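Dear U.,

Please find below the material for section 3 of the report. The protein was modelled together with 2-acetamido-2-deoxy-beta-D-glucopyranose; I have listed the sequence and SMILES used, followed by the predicted complex structure.
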Amino acid sequence: MRRPFSLFFFTFFLLLSIFIYNINHHKSKMVKSAVLGYPRIGVGRATKKAIESYWAGNSTAEELESVAKAVRKERWESIKNAGVDFIPSGEFTLYDHLLDHSYNFGVIPQRYVEQKLSGLDTYFAMGRGKQDRAKGIDVVASEMGKFFDSNYHIVKVDHSPDTEFKLLNNQWLNEYKEAKALGIETRPVLFGPITYLSLVRKARDAPADFEPIQLLDKLIPVYKEVLASLKEAGAEYVQLDEPILSLDKAESFGAEFKKVYEALAPVAPKITITSAYGRVGKSIDYLKELPIHALHLDLDREPKQLDSVLEAIKDTKIDIELGLISGRNIWKNDLNASKALAQKAIDVLGADRVVVSTSSSLLHTPISIKVEKKLTEQQLSWLSFAEEKCEEVAALAHALNGQETALFEQNTKDIAARREFERTSDSAVRDRVAGITEEMLSRKAPFPERRAAQKKHLNLPKFPTTTIGSFPQTKEIRQARAKFGKGELTAEQYEKAMEAEIQHAVDFQEKTGLDLFVHGEPERNDMVQYFGEQLTGFIFTQLGWVQSYGSRYVRPPIVVSDVSRPAPMTVRWSAYAQSLTKKPMKGMLTGPVTILNWSFPRADVSKEVQSKQLALALRDEVVDLANAGIKAIQVDEPAIREGLPLRKSDWDSYLKWAVDSFRLSTSGVENDIQVHSHFCYSDFGDIFPSIQALDADVISIEASKADLKLLDVFKSYGYSNEIGPGVYDIHSPRVPSEQEIKDRIAAMAKVLPADLMVVNPDCGLKTRGWKETEESLTNLVAAARWAREQYA
Ligand SMILES: *[C@@H]1O[C@H](CO)[C@@H](O)[C@H](O)[C@H]1NC(C)=O
Ligand SMILES: *[C@@H]1O[C@H](CO)[C@@H](O)[C@H](O)[C@H]1NC(C)=O
Ligand SMILES: *[C@@H]1O[C@H](CO)[C@@H](O)[C@H](O)[C@H]1NC(C)=O
């Protein structure tokens, strides 16, 4: 009798303990998924339209808020429906999320307070300025700055030693509750205090030794207030973005991080620090000591950092959040590969200490591929925008928890098909890149010899005058292009319209007396898209909008395969322009680094390879232009500086391929072809040797706005090719007098050798009107004539 009884109990307890073990096991040993942030634009560009309608006075603040509320709901639901565990809140914005922090913290510089605007209008005035002469309102915007190495721009509000922080608007609590009321539990997102103070601007009138980071002690209480309110409202987790960790300078911020997080941790929900846009580097030494719940890593950009970080945190209480799904590109993630990387972390820490996530906020990606009607099935199978990335994050977590979903299986198939496509795309182009020789990277002779040949070939006077490329893009030009796009103009009619514009530009230059002509670029919609559309290897979305700043969105082309040039791209227009005049015509091209930088690059081959493929296509174009009788060719690389990596130790390898790409594209021609390049900035500082290494025959730079001191840099480095520092600022409609331009030339001639100087405005004239352009260039030509006598 006893045995069955005890057996019964034994079995019962055994089953019970397995049951309990399973519950606990399931609860704790599960990999979770997270998304750091989401696009703000709204399906159908709802947010953008509502904001612009409000600005135009077409709708009320209430109407704008109701659209914003609907968009926030749509975003949360979309992320939730994808199956993501940690859903962000508080990172939605009507203009910029850094600006939101300043405004919410009550940092409103006096010049905005004085306008006596409503709260919302004060906020927008801080972002974009406001002018309403009738009401006596006139206030400039805060400074805008690039957000790490993305194309998103933040609004940097002025901070000074007497800046005070006072919680004006608890956006994070409001949105947390708003989501909760919809039945959605979220993880609120704020910039961490260190990144906040590192990104805002130091007021112009602040003392020289002041830096905003000195305000840390004053700022901490506001963060405590926000975080405590979130905890009180039931938030279990909070995400504090500290992307400053991707920079070298953060390595010396150990004391600040310690101070901040020791103060915040006791009152806050569980803190995850995110470190998007690069690697944490040596900062891990102090990060591992912080009283935080988890550390997020950007493993899309920097997968190699995983091992050392795991080693550093394995004996701490810090969990890891693996930023595997790229927030920066538009490619489908290789989930199988991500799974293997995540497994490494699980092996070291255990599944309960691992979260899989996006590498950054998804704000840098368009919303969804589902609305793209013009892409083929095959092309769509390669891509993943925000909505699809959320599904990937969730599928990855499921797979790590032992449930491979249909999405995961499909992903494996799609990735394999994409790899096969990549392998077979265009071997001729690859062979050509592999066959690039040192010789192809250099002009045939050094500059002095080329210069002599060019003097004969172009026959330009001393102090030659020229412009940067574009002439005013009038309403007529834009209308013709729009009509052609809609099929209301035939190709022939469109070409005739463009030829008429070119004729006008040539006549204008004859009349004004310029020396080196341009065709004026009426046919170009955009300096990158124009080329992308004519090259193989690019695709274009219809609705792939990505935020650049405020309500401004761009639609970057996507490089999907090996790039080549099926036919000449600009020769037809330049040759036509040259046929109208005896003066030399300058051909105009956008350089390889810039075309690539302003597009979504491929993820399967390096940017270096893609840039060289583009360079080879442009090299052929340069040669064809020369063969068509064009004697000077300008190749613009405004993005060389813009594309600099965040960490200095990565600069050299980048600059090497960037410079090589430019040289590759311009070195296929004879010595007598004059190669120009233009830089629409003047802050060359530490990249000067690379500018010199481009070995362009002529460079033009935006010197007019900046101090002439910059020219000293050229002198001190011994720059010896020709140079055209802008002699007037085209960014304002103001017409410079002849005397002003003479004075500038005279000032420049004190620093630069007169016989190397070219006289030009500081940028293209696309945004100007014809009238002011004519008056300004007439004065420019007169001043150059004066200089020829003065410095004969
Ligand atoms: C505002 O309304 C006017 C008149 O209806 C319209 O022409 C304009 O396009 C609207 N602007 C915006 C930004 O909604
Ligand atoms: C070019 O690249 C840099 C660095 O990656 C980035 O900051 C910049 O915004 C890019 N420009 C565009 C137009 O995307
Ligand atoms: C998936 O990843 C594993 C481990 O890295 C690898 O062995 C396997 O070949 C991959 N499978 C596919 C289909 O790519």
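For the text of the report, you could mention the following: Residues 2-28 form the longest helix (27 residues).

Regards,
Y.
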